[in-house]
Design brief:
The complex is a heterotrimer.
Chain A: E1 2-6, H1 9-15, E2 21-27, H2 30-33, H3 39-56, E3 61-67, H4 73-76, H5 80-83, E4 88-91, H6 95-104, E5 110-112, E6 114-124, E7 127-132, H7 148-151, H8 178-189, H9 193-196
Parallel strand pairs in A: 2-3, 2-4, 4-5
Antiparallel strand pairs in A: 1-6, 6-7
Chain B: E1 16-21, H1 25-34, E2 43-48, H2 56-64, E3 69-74, H3 85-103, E4 110-114, H4 120-137, H5 142-145, H6 174-182
Parallel strand pairs in B: 1-2, 1-3, 3-4
Helix pairs in contact in B: 1-4, 2-3
Chain C: H1 5-11, E1 15-20, H2 29-38, E2 44-47, H3 59-68, E3 73-78, H4 84-96, E4 101-105, H5 126-137, E5 154-159, H6 167-179, E6 183-188, H7 192-202, E7 208-214, H8 219-228, H9 236-243, H10 250-267, E8 273-277, H11 285-291
Parallel strand pairs in C: 1-2, 1-8, 2-3, 3-4, 4-5, 5-6, 6-7, 7-8
Helix pairs in contact in C: 4-5, 5-6, 8-9, 9-10, 10-11
Classes of the chains: A alpha/beta, B alpha/beta, C alpha/beta.
Chain lengths: 228, 190, 294
């Protein structure tokens, strides 16, 4: 899922400077799982912001509300009756959520409370690590389920590079060398042929931003006249 | 030391909140009562089933609403009735202390103690300790500002769902109802 | 004008290459001094490319300087800073400016250098870069366009004979040969037996392999490299030998060690040559070569 982390409180405070009515909007999906912007975290953040403002002797009203997701229009509608009453909306959603909220509530100032990190997994409670780079060209079938785009900082496709160090990566000695992992996995699976073939350069045009696609079931049939 | 206000100043009596778990700390509190032990009257005890249930928000809210010190009292390590509740509480309190530091309040206003069920005197001792600490740290600077409302949780409508058919006889008869609606010609048995 | 490295490598039994590192800045006086010192003593002179991700004059400009001074340059090209357009451009530029030899590398990551916040490119890796050189040599670019004029590069790559595990490294070596590498410069080696085992595998291909020789200036440097530089393993006896040197004389011991290794490799015909790396101590390279009997 999408993993994010809350921005340092000082940064959030700097963004909120001068604003007196703040609405903190949480998101109940990915950022709730990674404990960055879910209902509980938003309650905590709002409490902290209220306490900080009071300690400084500045008046500030901070209300909080959490919607199921900020990346679906239906859930954002639930905020319609509140948004106008505030000077600023602090969204605790991932980058996508913040932008969608800002799009929907065009006249409001929407600020991000989180730094979105990556698509990742939970290795343990509170421990997240990146697994996917959304490169739109998945080759996990050939690399034994280990992604060279993500686990290898250099996204080498004919690896390992010269910096591999007893199975660890030269960039971070704590991290494993992706290609040593791939080699061992393919050896175990009996699929080392992939490593013997020269892999051609990656097609980065599939990752052109901003990405967009329509699900096959929703594609309009252009050649048909009349609507069903 | 807080500055004197122009109206007659009240002497500072700390307000201390203690979240006590049912199986150990609260029992110790009961025991302290039976033993007629005297301890600071400033402590308000909140009985929770297990300290593991305590969320950081409760602790921050207590301080936001004007408590001068808050402590969480749970079982000794290995003795938690729910196995790991006290471990979670220790982690929660540690996290909450970091958040307090971020906000600008003294992290010493918050603490976790182990208080076994048989330790009546220890219960009294901790109550006195936190009260003394609250006295030494001075009143919670948020207390004066406490009365100004500064916001809270807003309500929202539940997520839109497709309408459910009315339940009959305690069961949801969706299949039958749908079948009945489609097959409305007489003579067709359900 | 120096003889083409390609021809020398084909004719001589044992070739020698060395390295110069461009400076950070526009003052090339020391660089030119090193070029003048080394150009006639080696068959090819490598120019590093923002080595260790530290920003410096680009390899291409310095290769041209070497040509101006009558030397034979080897352009080192990494994939860290340039996408495939810039890489092909750089290769065409090198060819037009008279550079005939290129060493294709993936490159160190940006975090180890002095601009750690830079965006790393790595559009291609070393194997794909070798393939690209091959295409340019045939008059085509990576997008399959016909070009006006082809390049004629003698392409090389790097290999780490003491990598652990060794199998993926050997597989990659084979791929690099298949992609067009004709010469190899290895990471520094200190264990002759282990290198000989590597050469058994390398001899399956018709390529020139030059063993990497890094000048050790002190026991501390040897220990540092063991700990921090992947693929280098300085055995204990050598560290002891360096440590036993009188104060300030450890570098002389290092020169002797390097010379000894070169001599052994040459006399036992283990490989096709050596690549001498003496970063910061380029003016001692002639002594190393002399110690090695070259």
């Amino acid at each position: 899922m999408i993993v994010a982390e809350r921005k340092p409180l000082d940064e959030i405070e700097a963004m909120l400077e001068g604003f007196q009515r703040v609405l903190v909007v949480g998101c109940g999906t990915c950022v709730a799982v990674c404990m960055a912007g879910g209902e509980k975290e938003v309650e905590l953040l709002a409490a902290e912001l209220r306490m900080k403002a009071k300690l400084r002797g500045q008046p500030r009203v901070v209300d909080e509300i959490t919607v199921t997701r900020q990346c679906d229009k239906e859930y954002l509608e639930q905020l319609a009756k509140y948004v106008d009453q505030y000077d600023v909306v602090l969204s605790a959603g991932c980058g996508a959520g913040v932008q969608f909220l800002a799009e929907r509530y065009d006249a409001a100032l929407v600020l991000p409370a989180l730094n979105t990190r990556f698509i990742g997994v939970a290795e343990g409670p509170g421990q997240w690590s990146q697994r996917c780079m959304a490169c739109s060209d998945c080759i996990l079938d050939q690399t034994g389920g280990i992604c060279p785009m993500t686990i290898c900082p250099k996204n080498v496709l004919n690896g390992p590079c010269g910096g591999t160090n007893h199975g660890k990566c030269e960039v971070d000695g704590e991290k494993d060398c992706a290609w040593t992992l791939i080699f061992r996995k393919l050896e175990k699976l009996g699929r080392l042929d992939y490593l013997r073939k020269i892999q051609p350069p990656k097609d980065y045009s599939r990752m052109t931003k901003p990405g967009r696609f329509t699900h096959a079931a929703f594609e309009q049939a252009d050649d048909q006249e009349g609507v069903s | 030391m807080n500055e004197n206000e122009s109206t007659a100043p009240e002497p500072y009596e700390p307000k201390v909140v203690a979240f006590c778990c049912t199986y150990c700390a609260y029992t110790a509190g009961d025991l302290a009562g039976s033993m007629r032990l005297e301890y600071a009257a400033n402590v308000r005890v909140v009985k929770t089933l297990c300290t593991g249930k305590i969320d950081a928000v409760l602790l921050l809210r207590a301080l936001e609403d004007g408590a001068d010190a808050v402590y969480v009292a749970g079982c000794a390590l290995g003795d938690c009735h729910f196995l790991e509740g006290n471990l979670r509480a220790i982690q929660t309190v540690a996290h909450a202390k970091k958040l307090l530091a971020e906000v600008g309040l003294e992290p010493e206003r918050l603490e976790f103690f182990h208080i076994p069920a048989s330790a009546g005197p220890l219960f009294a001792e901790r109550a006195d300790e936190m009260t003394a600490r609250a006295r030494q740290l001075g009143p919670n600077p948020l207390r004066r500002a406490m009365r100004e409302p500064a916001g809270g949780k807003l309500s929202r409508e539940p997520d839109p769902h497709p309408p459910l058919p009315p339940a009959r006889l305690g069961k949801l008869l969706r299949e039958l109802e749908r079948a009945a609606a489609v097959d409305s010609s007489p003579g067709a048995s359900s | 004008m120096a003889a083409a490295f390609r021809d020398v490598a084909a004719q001589k039994d044992f070739v020698v290459t060395a390295e110069v590192g461009p400076p950070k800045g526009t003052d090339v006086s020391t660089l030119v001094h090193h070029i003048e010192l080394l150009k006639d003593k080696v068959d090819g002179l490598n120019v590093t490319d923002n080595q260790s991700s530290v920003m410096r004059i680009s390899s291409l400009a310095v290769c041209r300087l070497i040509l101006d001074h009558g030397g034979e340059p080897i352009l080192q090209l990494t994939c860290r800073d340039r996408n495939r357009l810039a890489l092909q451009s750089e290769l065409l530029s090198a060819s037009v400016l008279g550079v005939q030899n290129v060493l294709c590398l993936t490159g160190d990551y940006v975090s180890v250098g002095d601009h750690p916040q830079a965006k790393p490119v790595f559009d291609l890796d070393s194997v794909q870069l070798l393939q690209t050189v091959g295409l340019l040599n045939q008059g085509k670019d990576l997008a399959d366009n016909a070009m006006q004029g082809a390049t004629d590069f003698f392409a090389g790559a790097v290999v780490t004979p003491e990598a652990d595990p060794i199998e993926p490294q050997l597989m990659k070596f084979d791929k690099k040969v298949a992609a067009g590498a004709r010469f190899f410069q290895t990471q520094a080696i200190y264990d002759l037996e282990s290198f000989k085992r590597f050469m058994d595998h390398a001899r399956k291909h018709d390529v020139k392999v030059m063993a990497g020789i890094v000048l050790l200036v002190s026991a501390g440097m040897a220990r540092y490299m063991n700990k921090n530089v992947p693929g280098i393993f300085v055995p204990d006896p050598l560290i002891q030998e360096l440590a036993a040197a009188p104060k300030g004389k450890a570098i002389e011991v290092g020169i002797r060690i390097a010379g000894r290794m070169i001599r052994q490799l040459r006399e036992e015909k283990v490989c096709d040559g050596v690549h001498v790396m003496a970063i910061g101590k380029e003016d001692r390279v002639p002594e190393i070569l002399a110690e090695g009997g070259i």
